[in-house]
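Re-running Dienelactone hydrolase to confirm reproducibility after the cluster update. Everything else is unchanged from the original entry.
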Amino acid sequence: MASNPPSSCCATGFKHEGTPVGELKTIDGVNTYIGTPKGNQKTDTAVLFLSDIFGLFNNNKLLVDEFANNGYLTVLPDLFRGGQLTTDDMESGRVNIGEWLKDYQPPNVDPIVAQTIKYMRETLGVKKIAAVGYCFGARYVTRFLKGGQINVGYHAHPTGTTHEDLAAIEGPLSISAAEIDQAFSPQLRHESEITLAKTGQAWQINLFSGVKHGFAVRADLSDPNQKWAKEQAFCQAIAWFNYHL
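Result of re-run:
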C-alpha cells in the first residue's frame, strides 16, 4: 500500500461553521452537491470532489463552495449512498471503521465516480476535470487519473492508495501531507515519492509540520497553525489546477 486504509485517525477532527450556498441534486440516484461559480467561471473546466468518510458533510460542502469561489464548477457526489459516517458516530466512538469500510470498496465506489464523470462531461459539457480527494477520496482520484477520465489530481492526507494505482497515473498529481499521520507515514510517503518519480508525470508532495491526518478538511480553526496549514493546502490545490488546466 502507498497509504494505509482508513482507520480511527480518519474519524477525528472539528466541525466548521458556515452555511453552504451550493445546490443539492440527485444525479442517477446519487445525492450530489454542486458549487457553481459566479462571475469569473472557468467554463470548460471543473472539479470533481471526492470526500472523506463523512461524505456530504458541512466541512466538505464549504470546501466545494471555496473551489467555486475560485472559478471552478465543483461536483461532490455521495460516494456512500447515504451510508457515510456522521459526526455523532465520530464523537461516540461506536463505529468499527474496518467493518464499515467493507461496504465501500472499488466495486461499490468506482461506478459512482464513473457516472459522475460522465455527467460532468456529457451533461455539464466539461472538457477538463481536476479531481480532489480527501482521505478516503484520494484513492479514487488515483484510480481515475488515467484513460482521459481525470486530467489532473490532488490528494490531501490520502488513505487506501496502492502503488499499482500510483504507478499507473497518466496525469499530474499533487499531495498535501501531514507530519503526524499513521495512514500516510514518512515511510509510505517516501515510497510514494519513488513510485511517482517513475511515472514520468508531474508530481508534488508538500509536507505540513505540526498537523495531523485530516487537517485539510477537519482542522481546528482556532489553532493558528492548523488554520494556516488548511488554507495553504487549499491554495496548493488551486495553484496546481490553475497551472495544469
